[in-house]
Design a protein that fits this description.
Length: 515
Amino acid sequence: RAAMKSLRFISAEAFVSNAEFARKSLGGIAHDLFPLLFKASYLLEQGEVIHDLVQNWPLVDFNMGKLLETTVDYQEDLSHRTCSVCLESCLTGLRDYVLNHPSPYMKRLKVVDLTGIKDVEVQLCECKKTMGRWARTQLLSKLCLELLVYLPQTRCNPGTFEISINVLIDLFVTERNYELVVQALLKKCYCPLKICCVALRSDNLALQKFFHIIKLTDPSLLRKLEIVHNVRLEMEHLEILFNSIHFPLLMSLTLPARTFNVRRFTTTDEQMLTNIGEKMGEMTQLTELSMSFSVLTGRIQKLLSPLKTPLKMLDVSNCSLNHADMAYLASSFHANHLEALDLSGHNISDLYPSIFFKLLSHSSSVLRSLTLEDCNIQDTHVNLLILGLSPCQKLQEFKFLGNPLSSQALKHLFTFLCELPMLKKVEFPVPRDCYPIGMTYPIDDANLCRFDHEKYERVAEELNLILLQANREDMKASSPLFGSYDAAIQETNNELGAYLIKSFKETLEKFTTSL
């Protein structure tokens, strides 16, 4: 359904649709109309107009999220459109704002906030070309370095050198853009555009380089830290990180797979884990924690009990939690505040059903997202699951891929899910009866696609019919075989693939040498 537009917005669209006329006329436009014209230009992908609007921006701040979100004049939120044409025009316009000579005394811009841009799977922009987080990091770093080359060469007004604009951005650093970002951060004090890293994601990076980049970003400003793929951070490195760097504003922390492995713990390791827990306890803003694919059996309490602020998001998928871990989670003060919980990879129905439902009960008043993938939930568990989910009236997202459920059990579950008023997204498994008889769970990647596709389509239609008959067209149900969409992986998958091949080759060479 098309969003309503005010007469002001329709007029703004008409004005910017003639790019040549709009660019010539900007000098006579009232300052308070610039945000309106920016959103209209963004919607119509008028790159040249966007560039000139930013180049002549008359206001003190430029906040992308607020400019593109729902407004009185146009209620559609455009912040999830990472349109390459629009974003490149915006960033080059920012560079040219600094170089724009005619009226430096009018330059009031102090803060540019690029953190409100959301990377999503489906792009609605006409050009269909996106500029993801990695590419935005790359381009901003490049433009900052360009400025340092241009400024001495151009006959700038002396006032140009007094311009100082803080640019808030979520940086995404990999091996491929590392050197460029490092140079931009090292020369930050000389550049009118000051990169202020609010969130940092690091993939495919040697540990030494990771430690270098994180110190350059000014950790005192960091709100979110994601150390995800191919950064070989283990527990001893994490202790060094927390001992050497203070993160006073950190709200969200994601650690790579195998950061912890209690199976090979010594007495020294136990002390190290205690120290890490205490350091996390000093992070008074920390409310989101992801530690998937670590082995944390029996140690969740030691790690989480020092936290002084309750967690709102916890991902402990595939962490080999035992009964004691689940009992701690269910009775901890975190339980009543959890808005997002991922317990994938745990056999909850057989190992600790009553404690799991106690945890669900405690978090039910606030829980918005629940992920239970590869949890061995079978047909016999569906009624219990429905009982556990019934109080979760604020649930917006439920993912349970990889569970051996029949098409009949899924229909039963979907009939119940229609009753959860705020549920919008469901990720369900391909029914067990679509696979060959005897298929074992969890299904490996090689066999994931070996199911009866025609039968699956029929079942999916029946499930969608259940939603339709319950007037729940607002609910979207799907079966992404290889997991949910990850914008960061999508953007850097070529580099990630090359890294994995290189690692595999090195392993083979070591194996051959040893033979």
